[in-house]
Design goal:
By secondary structure, this protein is of the alpha+beta class. It has one domain. The chain has two helices and four strands, in the order ββαββα. The strands form two sheets. Strands 1-2 form a two-stranded antiparallel ribbon. Strands 3-4 form a two-stranded antiparallel ribbon. The longest helix is centred in the last third of the chain and has 15 residues. It is globular, with a radius of gyration of 17 Å. The protein starts with a strand and ends in a 14-residue tail after the last helix.
Length: 83
Amino acid sequence: MSTRIGEQSSIELPVVSFTDRRLLAMYRAGTTPQTLIIDADGRVGYSHLGAVTDPVVIDSILDAVATVAAPAVVARPDSATAP
């Protein structure tokens, strides 16, 4: 199951029901509804408690999805081009 975030967005996020108490504790998911944006390493990059109806909340979720999903940019001294 998934849900679309925002009317203008094409982003669909999976809907998960935590039935395992260990998952509830691990993600501190005690209140429903709760929106969690979880990165590829299992870390919570964003959390929102309550319904997602306010346009400001929707925008913050979309920003979080873009930020959490974006690959990390690491600047290394050896990657600079020499003049």
